[in-house]
Amino acid sequence: MTKDANLEKITALAKRRGFIFPSSEIYGGLANVYDFGPLGAELKNNIKQLWWDRFVHKRDDIVGLDSSIFMNSKVWEASGHVSSFTDPLIECKHCHSRFRTDALPHENLKQCPHCGEKEGFSEPKQFNLMFKTHIGATEEESNDVYLRPETAQAIFINFKNILDTTRKAIPFGVAQMGKAFRNEITTGYFIFRMLEFEQMEIEYFIHEKDWERFFDHWKEEIITWAIEVGISKDNLRFREHDEKERSHYSKRTVDLEYNFMGDFKEIYGLAYRGNYDLAKHKLMYVDQQSNEQFIPHVIEPSFGVERTILPILLDAYHEEEKRIVLKLKPRIAPYKTAVFPLVQNKEEIVTKAQSVHQNLVALGIYSAWDARGNIGKRYLSQDEIGTPYCITIDYDTLKDNTVTVRDRDTTQQERIKIDQLQEYLMPKII
Ligand code: GAP
User: In sequence order, which residues have a C-beta less than 8 Å from that of residue 4 and are 6 or more positions away?
Assistant: First the structure.
């Protein structure tokens, strides 16, 4: 299957089943902006919860932060983003379309991918990726604010607040997830390069002498997370940035890349930011035991939420002889179960099924309800959205209080007692 065919199928399925919609569609859309529909919102929340659980709740050395998007614009001046958070852009001399130089294929350096003319391109110009707006009624420079292009800076500027309130000692990390915004000129695959996206970032504060050890630790953590959340190991590789490619703050950067059918692209970044940011914000650390004062160094693993979702969908998508199935990890699947009454016209069966459905939801097992059409069609519909278990209430249920549980991946069915459903399902879905 070609790259485009697979992406087209995922894009179509995402829209058809309510995972991802193009933004503002009824007004002709808005390029590089998407909305997450009912199932997409569930999938996204499940991924974020899993990440938070793994990196904040399950670790004593990391605490969370939820900062505002707007910050004093001096933050971005100090961090170097106002002067250096730029992409080099060239413009076609014929149609004036703009391209990122690194996004153009080598063979296209003469021919414009938009109009096809070979009049050549302008010299590269630096283009700042931050969206700028104003607070208040007047557009004076002092009122400028930026939409944050990374969640990281808010962690740095709260460094002292966090130290004062948590009594954490180095090494420790601060995690934050939330929206980031970049005025991206070029498009990417589907939700790969967006204007508005979500990041899940950790700034891990260390002693300079330990940076290599922690860099290796986080490299391992990043890939382990990617595999556990459902991205195929075979489609992942690390790539080291050379000096020219590295961001203005970084001393070493490694990208975790995903193989979009032959085209490896960054999904996560790992950077050693040295003490660049804390030094710029003039923030210090005092060791409580030795009284030593120094500026901590930082290792930064940065994960994109949408760049997690796209590889997951591509790797989960399977076409089998008679069905399309999304083999999502149960923990992140929008619904964990779907409950069906075998028939709609037998009241006892429908009532029993409703009570099974409501009990599952009350237990925190998010469950779909489907009473339409025949059972075969209901299975196919749930397979396509990745529901791991389908539970059918039938005539036997009324006699022996058992239900049929059908496994999405094997399609095997088992009879389980209703009062044992929780025990049966829980280990499989968490
Ligand atoms: N704080 C470091 C930082 O922001 P980055 O490599 O520029 O580093 C980190 O971005 C991650 O954010 C990327 O690996 C990717 O997952 C995500 N990301 C960046 N730009 C994006 C965009 N335009 N659309 C979707 N995700 C993006």
Answer: none
| pLDDT score of 2 more than 70 | no
Q: Residue of the nearest CA to atom 5 in ligand 1? A: 269
Distance between CA 281 and CA 66 in Å, rounded?
Answer: 19
What gap in Å lies between CA 77 and CA 149, rounded to an integer? 13
Atom of ligand 1 nearest to the CA of 151: 1
- Please state, in angstroms and rounded to a whole number, the distance separating the CA atoms of residues 311 and 302: 16
Are 307 and 349 in a shared domain?
A: no
pLDDT single digits (tens) 62-85: 999 999 999 999 999 999 999 999
- Residue-wise pLDDT tens digits, 357-369: 999 999 999 999 9
- From the CA of 269, how far away is ligand 1's center (Å)? 7
Whether residue 380 is found in the same domain as residue 283 = no
Indicate the top mutation candidate among 223, 302, 308, 312 to test ligand 1's pocket, ranked by most ligand atoms within 8 A of CB. Answer: 302
User: 273 lies in which domain range?
Assistant: 3-83+146-314
Tell me if 71 is assigned to a ligand binding site: no
**Per-residue pLDDT tens digits for 255-285:** 999 999 899 999 999 999 999 999 999 999 9
Establish if 195 belongs to a structural domain.
Answer: yes
**Interval 218-263: pLDDT, tens:** 999 999 999 999 999 999 999 999 988 888 888 899 999 999 989 9
Consult the annotation and say whether 221 binds a ligand. no
Closest C-alpha residue for ligand 1 atom 6: 269
CB-based contact 132:145 (threshold 8 Å): yes
Predicted confidence at residue 87, as pLDDT, reads 87
Of all helices (H) and strands (E), which one includes residue 298? strand 297-304
In a shared domain, residues 361 and 259: no
Tokens of 250: 């970084």
Q: Residue 150 annotated as binding?
A: yes
Residue closest by Cα to atom 22 of ligand 1: 193
- Radius of gyration in angstroms for the set of CA atoms belonging to the chain, rounded to a whole number: 25
Tell me, yes or no, whether 234 lies in a domain.
yes
**Are residues 264 and 182 part of one domain?**
yes
Same-domain pairing of 307 and 403: no
Same domain, 155 and 67: yes
Report the number of distinct structural domains present in the chain: 2
**Residues having CB within 6 Å of any atom of ligand 1:** 150, 152, 182, 184, 193-194, 197, 199, 201, 266-269, 300, 302, 304, 306-307
| Residue of minimum CA distance from atom 16 in ligand 1 | 304
Instruction: Please state the atom number of ligand 1 nearest to the C-alpha of residue 152.
Output: 1
Residue closest by Cα to atom 12 of ligand 1: 304
Residue 105 has pLDDT above 90, yes or no: no
Q: What is the CATH number of the domain that holds 71?
A: 3.30.930.10
The label of the residue with tokens 């890939």 reads 223
Q: Would you tell me how many other CB atoms lie within 10 Å of the CB of residue 19?
A: 27
In this prediction, residue 67 carries a pLDDT of 98
